[in-house]
């Protein structure tokens, strides 16, 4: 056997004619390239791919696998049987932009600056100083892609603020906030900085198709990949494919047909993507997590004034939890959460262990072996112990603050089964034991004064630390201040 780099090989090489030497150089170069390619492929096979699939305004009770008796979600129900269903999964906020920022950074929203939902054109954005999981994975050799809703800047597709490509994504097709004019035939998507123009179809499937096209034609297949798929469904303005509404034709209420059809539309898109992973032989090597950004919009009740109104289509279910979108009660923040990771997560399992959106960042870092940034507070914890049936080890508690919640219930913190909720000025507090009262019906502060004092102090201290950490954009924003309370009536002057 001839080894070109051995001492014997070097002696032989000197006696080769020039043409032979050239051939040897080419052979050596090709061999090295092949070896490098094989090594990269082996490394990619050892490191899992990641898919973070995020629904918009999907309630905790909106899926068949979470107990809904009417909405048909066969693909997600199947997915739940293939992985771990988390019954106490939380978003990091009860509105969209903050919860999304936390998924990407592992930091609670008031720390990373995305403290509120971001209006089109506003100054708020996910700052370039924030380190996203997409950026960390890209630096580790991952191919990265984002498709669907973005909603992490006010000046979308503008050089004035960071765009998805500035936060670590090689490829992206997104909207600033909602699909417009509705989920049907949207016109406001942008791909890699270029407006896409009018599209035909419904948003969730269009988003899934873009992800599939990237997997098939645009990603570097020698690299593992990180893919975020964030649908608009079932956020307003809802518009559902008639074939999915047909499944609910027995419902007299058009709002029910639209909403339930919209969730099935979302489920169909999810199923298409999972089928593509399977057909490409990627399902066994891909970590997939499905969740939602917050609880359901609206009251959930009919809108009799105008049954055709979009407001009549906000018919999501909290599964019996108190509160809805914008609330710090569990109906606003507890969401579906399902993880599938073949060989690592036992199929058909469930857990009551509380998890939160910021945990996604830390979990992915832990899986890949990337240290989380040490120059800032990371609120998320790794879920890896959970996959082995153990408790999650947390340095930071589960915590929420939302300026759109009612003033008495704006801030909350959970520790074990205990949850304390406080007012914006930290003068009013309530205590709930979620193990005994999962619907948060009874304030037990007076019944457990020692625990109440402990939890209240934790909330006050933690809230102060969070507010002191991030940018103070919220301090001078009129939306951060609650609506003015009516002035107390002046006492009538005594008559003489």
Automatic annotation (TrEMBL):
<keyword id="KW-0106">Calcium</keyword>
<dbReference type="GO" id="GO:0046872">
    <property type="term" value="F:metal ion binding"/>
</dbReference>
<feature type="region of interest" description="Disordered">
    <location>
        <begin position="469"/>
        <end position="496"/>
    </location>
</feature>
<feature type="compositionally biased region" description="Basic residues">
    <location>
        <begin position="480"/>
        <end position="496"/>
    </location>
</feature>
<keyword id="KW-0479">Metal-binding</keyword>
<feature type="domain" description="Sulfatase N-terminal">
    <location>
        <begin position="48"/>
        <end position="370"/>
    </location>
</feature>
<dbReference type="InterPro" id="IPR050738">
    <property type="entry name" value="Sulfatase"/>
</dbReference>
<feature type="region of interest" description="Disordered">
    <location>
        <begin position="289"/>
        <end position="328"/>
    </location>
</feature>
<dbReference type="Pfam" id="PF00884">
    <property type="entry name" value="Sulfatase"/>
</dbReference>
<dbReference type="InterPro" id="IPR017850">
    <property type="entry name" value="Alkaline_phosphatase_core_sf"/>
</dbReference>
<protein>
    <submittedName>
        <fullName>Arylsulfatase</fullName>
        <ecNumber>3.1.6.1</ecNumber>
    </submittedName>
</protein>
<dbReference type="InterPro" id="IPR024607">
    <property type="entry name" value="Sulfatase_CS"/>
</dbReference>
<keyword id="KW-0378">Hydrolase</keyword>
<dbReference type="GO" id="GO:0004065">
    <property type="term" value="F:arylsulfatase activity"/>
</dbReference>
<dbReference type="InterPro" id="IPR000917">
    <property type="entry name" value="Sulfatase_N"/>
</dbReference>
<comment type="similarity">
    <text>Belongs to the sulfatase family.</text>
</comment>
């Amino acid at each position: 056997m001839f080894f070109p780099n051995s001492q014997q090989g070097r002696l032989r090489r000197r006696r080769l004619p020039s043409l032979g030497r050239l051939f040897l150089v080419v052979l050596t170069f090709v061999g090295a390239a092949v070896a490098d390619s094989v090594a990269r492929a082996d490394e990619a096979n050892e490191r899992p791919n990641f898919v973070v699939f995020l629904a918009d305004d999907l309630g905790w009770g909106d899926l068949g696998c979470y107990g809904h008796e009417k909405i048909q979600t066969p693909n997600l129900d199947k997915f739940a049987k293939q992985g771990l269903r988390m019954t106490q999964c939380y978003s990091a906020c009860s509105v969209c932009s903050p919860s999304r920022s936390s998924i990407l950074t592992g930091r609670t929203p008031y720390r990373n600056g995305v403290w509120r939902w971001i209006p089109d054109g506003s100054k708020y954005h996910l700052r370039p100083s924030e380190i996203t999981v997409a950026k960390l994975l890209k630096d580790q050799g991952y191919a990265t892609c984002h498709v669907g809703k973005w909603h992490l800047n006010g000046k979308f597709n503008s050089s004035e603020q960071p765009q998805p490509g500035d936060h670590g994504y090689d490829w992206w097709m997104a909207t600033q906030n909602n699909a417009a004019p509705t989920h049907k035939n949207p016109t406001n998507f942008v791909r890699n900085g270029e407006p896409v123009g009018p599209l035909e179809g419904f948003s969730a499937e269009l988003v899934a198709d873009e992800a599939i096209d990237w997997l098939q034609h645009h990603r570097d297949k020698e690299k593992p990949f990180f893919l975020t798929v964030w649908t608009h469904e079932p956020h307003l303005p809802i518009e559902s494919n008639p074939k999915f509404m047909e499944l609910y034709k027995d419902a007299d209420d058009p709002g029910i047909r639209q909403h339930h059809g919209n969730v099935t539309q979302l489920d169909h898109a999810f199923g298409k993507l999972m089928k593509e992973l399977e057909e490409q032989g990627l399902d066994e090597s891909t970590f997939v997590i499905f969740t939602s950004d917050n609880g359901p919009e609206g009251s959930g009740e009919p809108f009799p004034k105008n049954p055709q109104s979009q407001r009549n289509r906000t018919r999501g279910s909290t599964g019996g939890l108190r509160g809805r979108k914008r609330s710090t009660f569990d109906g606003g923040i507890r969401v579906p959460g399902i993880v599938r990771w073949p060989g690592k997560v036992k199929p058909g399992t469930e857990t009551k262990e509380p998890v939160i959106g910021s945990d996604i960042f830390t979990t992915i870092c832990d899986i890949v072996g990337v240290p989380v940034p040490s120059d800032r507070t990371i609120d998320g914890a790794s879920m890896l112990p959970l996959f082995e049936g153990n408790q999650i080890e947390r340095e930071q508690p589960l915590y929420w603050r939302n300026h759109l919640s009612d003033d008495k219930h704006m801030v909350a913190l959970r520790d074990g089964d205990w949850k304390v909720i406080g007012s914006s000025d930290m003068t009013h507090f309530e205590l709930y034991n979620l193990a005994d009262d999962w619907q948060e019906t009874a304030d037990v502060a007076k019944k457990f004064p020692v625990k109440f004092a402990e939890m209240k102090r934790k909330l006050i201290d933690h809230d102060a630390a969070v507010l002191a950490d991030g940018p103070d954009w919220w301090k001078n924003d009129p939306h951060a201040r609650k609506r003015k309370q009516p002035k107390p009536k002046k006492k009538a002057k005594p008559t003489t």
